[in-house]
Design goal:
mainly alpha; 4 helices
Length: 166
């Protein structure tokens, strides 16, 4: 994080900084959005599960609060990085959006595979057949991840004549 105040010296170094920072800002924002939507929709509005369902409801509510704080922290950090890029006039929008999709999709797949199946912290729903829910959850996350990675591959970011990336 020491590079927050440093201004890279060469055009190449500035561009590398902008490419990396744009992607990181997007990934953090994407992770935060995924966490926020999961917490808000599935935990609070639908009451389908808590972040941690292997204990009492009180423990589940505390785990939801910690999860919610994690999601907001990711968004705030991502927005600070984005604001710094905007201040420097060096944000690369396609890399930012690729990061958002990659962060969201990667986090959703991690949640669906690791937290739901491997660790058994919670399921999407209870007392219903899980396969349709698991497929929808993991396919949506996988699709976002693939689209984000394709954006990164198709538009890796390059210097434009104005000195800004695409």
């Amino acid at each position: 994080m020491g590079d927050l105040q440093e201004q890279p010296e060469t055009d190449s170094a500035r561009f590398t900084f902008a490419r990396r920072r744009s992607l990181l800002a997007g990934v953090l924002i994407g992770i935060g959005i995924a966490a926020f939507l999961d917490e808000t929709v599935f935990h609070q509005l639908l009451h389908w599960h808590h972040f941690y369902d292997r204990s009492t409801s009180d423990v589940g509510l505390v785990s939801d609060g910690l999860f919610h704080a994690f999601g907001w922290l990711a968004i705030v950090l991502g927005l600070f990085l984005f604001a710094d890029l905007q201040r420097r006039r060096s944000a690369i929008p396609v890399r930012l959006w690729a990061g958002v999709l990659t962060g969201w999709g990667g986090f959703q797949l991690y949640d669906g595979v690791i937290q739901h199946k491997v660790l058994g912290l919670h399921q999407i729903r209870y007392a219903v057949p899980l396969v349709p829910y698991d497929l929808a959850w993991n396919i949506a996350g996988g699709a976002a991840l693939v689209i984000g990675l394709l954006l990164l591959r198709r538009f890796p970011g390059r210097l434009a004549r104005s000195g800004r990336g695409d």
